[in-house]
Specification:
Layout: H1 3-21, H2 26-40, E1 45-51, E2 57-63, H3 94-105, E3 111-119, E4 122-131, H4 139-178, E5 182-187, E6 192-195, H5 197-203, H6 207-210, H7 215-218, H8 229-232, E7 246-252, E8 258-269, E9 275-284, H9 286-320, H10 329-360, E10 368-371, H11 373-384, E11 391-396, E12 404-407, H12 408-424, E13 430-438, E14 442-448, H13 456-459, H14 472-476, H15 483-493, E15 497-502, E16 508-515
Parallel strand pairs: 11-13
Antiparallel strand pairs: 1-2, 1-4, 3-4, 5-6, 5-9, 7-8, 8-9, 10-12, 13-14, 14-16, 15-16
Helix pairs in contact: 1-2, 1-4, 2-4, 9-10, 10-15, 11-12, 12-15
Bound molecules: adenosine-5'-diphosphate.
Adenosine-5'-diphosphate binds at residues 417, 421-422, 425, 449, 451-454, 462, 467-469, 474, 479-485, 508.
Length: 516
């Protein structure tokens, strides 16, 4: 071998080593190693096998060999030892292995040289270079490839570690991205670095809009009193004494809906105990809050609405039962009918409460039959007529109104609720009308009054549970805000819809439509 040829080989080797260490992508690194190794040794083909965790080897890169044939060479790396001293290690029976492999693959490969890539005596892989023609591999060739393999081992190990870290990072990202809870990762100054899909859904803020901004600007939590939690009580800005990094509050979603969230923060510190990032777990607790609010409302409604009739009943019953009084018949009848009225109110309230809770539990079942709406409307009016002398009533349906299918008892309640409201919310009296007509595939019914009306902003809320318009009349009028909620739920259970037309001071018309 000529010295200057060797020298050039060495130089070349050095150059490649540099190129190798700069490359962190494993497939492209292996390609670089292999192409250069084949070239230095004037070979025609080459293979790199890497070691698996279970200490077997598998081909990871090839050069000059048909890809589909690579596995046919497995005689070359079957049952290899996995440790090697630094130098002089040889693949046992290499030439026999080559004969087996060439025969299996049907390729005339005559010469092979194989050198292990070793890190701390552990073989992490092997480089094979083949010649199908030309001279045998010399000692120098082995030496050159040996040096080359040492460099390659380090580069492969680095790329491998890098790939592992990269895989791990991708896995963590996938976990964070797909977590059912909201997850955000913050930098020490509370700039958002990661904003996962659950958070996008929760807040309506896309990740690209949130990332790079401060969490207190994006979430901007407020407490029930409207005070900013983020600006006044952020546990990251002012860690609480108990060390519990927790915050809760309401955030406004892009579509205007309020979302209640609870955040748990876990800070990450570096070796010098400096805060480097914070992982925040954000849960949507709106349902929980709603349930809590509902419970509170329910308690106050029950205590308020049940107390009044009960105390009236108690008062009248106590008076009428007095031994020393000798009530005349008229007083007795008046007193008892008041007791009866109040008991009816109680009964209605309790029924409404029960229905509302059945609805919530999905337990409200409808018993379908054919409904004669005009006669049901007449009967409802007949029940209410004696309760008022300020109102007049009218019923107006066409003769040939087709029968609709529905639950008789529930429909009676709906009409009763609507007429009862029409009465309650027109304290100065007026005309209350029930009527309806058939459209192509549904029957529409209305109940109208000439009462106080409902402001436009309240109209979509009055069908919510426990919703009541806040005005002096409602405050004086008994009610739990359940009537319209039940009307809507029952009409929708019939496949229908309900809506209101109203102007303050000009009366209201409640409409519903159910399919024929
Ligand atoms: P409640 O009458 O027990 O308060 P509802 O669910 O029946 O509950 O009605 C909800 C609210 O809608 C009432 O509190 C009232 O403010 C308003 N409302 C209902 N019906 C009428 C009506 N006919 N005219 C004016 N306001 C009404």
């Amino acid at each position: 071998m000529f010295p200057d040829y060797r020298l050039r080989q060495r130089e070349y080797l050095l150059q490649i080593s540099r190129a190798m260490t700069a490359r962190l992508n494993l497939p492209s690194l292996l390609k670089l190693i292999l192409e250069n190794a084949v070239e230095i040794l004037s070979g025609q083909a080459g293979l790199i096998v890497l070691r698996r965790d279970d200490s077997t080897f598998y081909p990871r890169a090839s050069y000059g060999l048909p890809a589909e044939a690579v596995n046919l060479f497995d005689a070359l790396w079957k049952d290899l030892p996995t440790t090697a001293g630094r130098r002089g290690w040889q693949v046992p029976d290499l030439h026999m292995r080559l004969s087996l492999a060439s025969a299996a693959a049907g390729m005339p490969l005559r010469q092979v040289v194989a050198l292990p890539m070793v890190i701390e005596d552990e073989i992490i892989g092997l480089i094979y270079i083949f010649r199908s023609r030309g001279a045998e591999f010399t000692v120098n060739d082995r030496q050159v490839l040996g040096d080359f393999a040492d460099q390659a081992a380090i580069a492969v190990q680095n790329a491998w570690l890098y790939q592992q870290v990269d895989d791990e990072r991708a896995r963590l990202n996938a976990i964070i991205e797909n977590s059912g809870d909201g997850v955000m990762i913050l930098e020490a100054d509370r700039t958002i670095r990661t904003w996962n899909r659950a958070l996008v859904g929760m807040t309506g803020v896309p990740a690209e809009e949130a990332i790079g901004r401060h969490c207190y600007d994006v979430l901007n939590l407020h407490n029930r009193q409207g005070v900013s939690v983020c600006y006044t009580a952020c546990p990251l800005a002012k860690p609480p004494e108990d060390g519990r990094l927790y915050a809760e509050g309401d955030t406004q979603r892009a579509d205007g809906i309020k979302v209640s969230v609870a955040d748990n923060y876990s800070p990450q510190y570096d070796e010098d105990n400096r805060l480097i990032s914070v992982i925040a777990n954000v849960r949507d607790v709106s349902r929980l809050r709603e349930a809590e609010d509902m419970k509170n409302t329910l308690l106050s409604v029950i205590s308020h609405e049940l107390k009044t009739p009960v105390s009236i009943i108690k008062g009248y019953a106590g008076t009428l039962v007095r031994q020393d009084a000798n009530w005349d018949k008229e007083t007795l009848t008046d007193g008892l009918s008041i007791i009866e009225d109040e008991a009816d109110k109680l009964n209605e309230l309790i029924n409404n409460l029960l229905d509302a809770s059945r609805l919530q539990a999905g337990g409200l079942k409808l018993k379908f039959g054919f409904l004669d709406l005009p006669s049901m409307a007449e009967k409802t009016i007949d029940r209410f007529r004696p309760q008022t002398d300020k109102h007049t009533f009218s019923v107006d349906f066409p003769e040939n109104l087709p029968p609709v299918k529905g639950d008789h008892e529930r429909m009676r309640e709906i009409l009763s609720n609507l007429v009862s409201n029409a009465l309650k919310y027109s304290p100065d009296g007026g005309l209350i009308r029930i009527g309806g007509w058939a459209e192509e595939n549904e029957v529409q019914v209305y109940v109208s009054d000439e009462g106080i009306g409902i402001p436009a902003t309240e109209q979509e809320h009055i069908f919510d549970r426990f919703a009541r318009v806040d005005n002096s009349l409602t405050r004086q009028t008994p009610g739990a805000g359940l009537g319209l909620f039940l009307v809507k739920a029952v009409i929708e259970a019939h496949g229908g819809r309900v809506w209101v037309e109203s102007r303050p001071g000009q009366g209201s018309t409640f409409n519903f439509a159910i399919p024929i």
